[in-house]
UniProtKB/TrEMBL annotation:
It comes from Kribbella sindirgiensis. Signal peptide: none annotated. InterPro entries: Glyas_Bleomycin-R_OHBP_Dase, Glyoxalase_6. Residues 117-223 form the Glyoxalase-like domain. This is 4a-hydroxytetrahydrobiopterin dehydratase. SUPFAM superfamilies: Glyoxalase/Bleomycin resistance protein/Dihydroxybiphenyl dioxygenase (SSF54593). PANTHER family: CONSERVED PROTEIN, HYPOTHETICAL FUSION PROTEIN.
Amino acid sequence: MEQVLSRQEASEAVEGAGWRFVLGALLTSVPVGSLARAVGLAADAVAVCGGDADRHLRVDARPERVVFTLQSVEHAAVTTLDVELALRISAAVDKSGLSTEPEIGTGAPRSVQTLEIAIDALDIGGIRAFWRAVLGYTGEAGAEGPEDPLIDPVGQGPAVWFQQMDQARPQRNRIHFDISVPHDEAPRRLEAALAAGGRLVSATRAPAFWVLADQEGNEACITTWQGRDG
């Protein structure tokens, strides 16, 4: 029976196989040397996932790497089946002489990650329909309430979520980026952002998220799955 896993359970179940739990999904990357190799690995992954591929697996195949993402479409979460599929994919990649990895500290351009856009609003219900229409987005499975996040139905663009404000803030930006990274990548990303001239606005909710700002006060958050339970 397919069961939804907690953040901790999902993370621990696949970390040893080179996957990371990031924002409700399992992600891994396989560095390759050609698009043909990437497409071949994608085909292998689909084959080992069988009939479950369409409901769980997303693949981004590029000449440099192929990125696999696993999440139950039905539950919009990681399940026991996603873990099983991740291990199958890792085994198939291993047979090809390559390995699944989150590309942390390997010299890769960056680790696996997920990008969200956060919009601060006084009346979330009043603006959500606009953003849904202008982006061509929709709600996640089972989440079409007036204040729920929006997602790209074809899985190419970043998700959009809405943060409740208690008063107007015309003096600062009201749209910021959330960069969700593996929990063991966050310290490296935070250090790099600060070294690049950023400043730490708040760490009161770390390790769930650190609020950073550039030299002109534009904000971004580095986020992880940790610190969100309890």
